[in-house]
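User: I'm preparing a small set of examples for a lab meeting where we compare how different chains pack in three dimensions. I only have the primary sequence for this one, and I'd like the structure in token form so I can line it up with the others. Please keep the answer compact; I'll paste it straight into my notes.
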Amino acid sequence: MSKRTLRGKAAIVGVGETTYYKHGKAPVSEFKLALQAILAACEDAGIDPRRIDGFASYSNDRNDPSRIAAALGLPALRFSNMNWGGGGGGGSAAVGNAAAAVACGIANCVVVFRALAQGQFQRFGAAPPGGTATGEMALNAPYGVMSPGQRYAMRAMRFLHENRIAPSAQRAIALASYHHAQANPRAVMHGRPLTPEAYDSSRWIVEPWRLFDCCQENDGAAALIIVPAEEARDLRHVPAYLLGAAQGSEYRNGARGHNAPLYATSSFTTVAPQLYEMAGVKPSEVDVVQSYENFTGGVLMSLIEHGFFSAEKANEFLTVENLIAPSGKLPLNTSGGNLAECYMHGLELQVEAVRQLRGQSTSQVPDAEVSVVISGPMVTPVSSMILGTGATL
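Assistant: Understood. Below is the structure token output for the 393-residue chain.
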């Protein structure tokens, strides 16, 4: 019996984005933003939009696939998929789900998309509006733990304390993202560089995170087009082949009331080994990483749980010089990421991972062949994926 795997069976052949706007500044509806990103991805791939027959998204995207299919005039809808879980933990899972659909013949051309117009709906970073609290919130809210920053700060603080990791490590992650955004004209923070002094003097949001440790709030949309590998070679761009994708979390990660047995985790300790096993790749073979920043502490924990360095080496490894392209040991968030390009719930990170393999990034890593995306640390389920060029198959 052959090994069951997605390795090399599907590829991303088109990427599309809208203009990225500050919170509340999108001039059109969230639904129209989704359509614009999908059409841009089709144009990038060089395919007729009517070739699409499936959609995958995550985090309760409000834009229903049936409505999108009607708006695009699709001949038939064969696949629609939503990955459970809050935050951006489903970003790479959505790509894996789409790849599974095309690999086993459920669909042949699946769009992964995410559209956000936080100005037209509720802010993600805010505490929920008043009313009845249920589930985990019923346990947290009476103690004043209501926003995502508050809920995840305690996990990160414990990890930093137990491993004696200095504030400079989180600062390096923020500075690297802002450094890359200065080369990226799409970035919301393009033209607004960040200095160590400005970082250190910024206000606390919730310890251990200052203002520049926290993601932006933006409006916009992004989309990816995924087809079977054998069809990808005939399209416009060099395919970005999916080498591996994994999703999930550890034993009782979702236990309520901050009661998980392994508390100080980014939720990847069981996911990352599955990812590398499918991809047939070692951490040392990765050329560039895009890691979801809800908060910089989550990035730090994710990189450790994906084996790029140990917790004991975090202070030594996490320097700006090591994290910036083209010369760093591990170029990180080369478009500016959630902190400085935009917060498109992390899907802009997948777009950047594809650009790196095509050689089209504004902060290009020389000869990049293996590109990793880590989606949504500290939530559950989380997910991550590895893309590679044809040379890696």
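A couple of notes for your slides: The mean pLDDT is 95. The longest strand covers residues 218-228.

User: Perfect, thanks.
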